[in-house]
Automatic annotation (TrEMBL):
InterPro entries (UniProt xref): Acyl_CoA_acyltransferase (IPR016181), Gcn5-rel_NAT (IPR045057), GNAT_YJDJ (IPR031165)
Residue ranges of domain N-acetyltransferase in the record: 8-94
EC numbers: 2.3.1.-
Stretches of the chain forming a coiled coil according to its record: none
Enzyme class: transferase
Pfam families (alphabetical): Acetyltransf_CG
Lineage, opening ranks: Bacteria, Bacillati, Actinomycetota, Actinomycetes, Pseudonocardiales
Species annotation: Saccharopolyspora griseoalba
Keyword Acyltransferase attached: yes
Keyword Transferase: yes
Name of this chain's protein: GNAT family N-acetyltransferase
PROSITE patterns, A to Z: GNAT_YJDJ
Length: 104
């Protein structure tokens, strides 16, 4: 039985990574600035697809940046659609930026 997936912020690579049994199964790349974080690309390795890892990765990453008080700019289409499906996370996107990401 495999362990629970683990999400870590690999700041050196500017990405959150989701690891399964010690192997990197996917990542969400970002650009960090003092008050905000822009998610640019999310990818899950094909061998791990269909396990819900992308959603787990994004939820964990957003929870982490929320705890740091960062605003989120979801340029990545997956992150943007995930936030749209989870309205309790829309507040992470600055109100004046939500129309730009179709999150109103």
């Amino acid at each position: 039985m495999s362990a629970e997936p683990e999400v870590v912020d690999n700041a050196d690579e500017s990405r959150f990574e989701i690891r399964v049994d010690g192997s990197t199964a996917g990542f969400a790349e970002y650009k960090l600035s003092p008050e905000k974080i822009a998610f640019t690309h999310t990818e899950i390795d094909e061998s791990y697809s269909g396990r819900g890892l992308a959603g787990a990765l994004v939820r964990s990453a957003l929870d982490d940046v929320s705890s740091r008080g960062l605003a989120v700019l979801p340029f990545c289409p997956y992150v943007r659609s995930w936030i749209a499906k989870h309205p309790d996370y829309v507040d992470l996107v600055p109100a004046d930026q939500r129309a730009r990401f179709h999150l109103e």
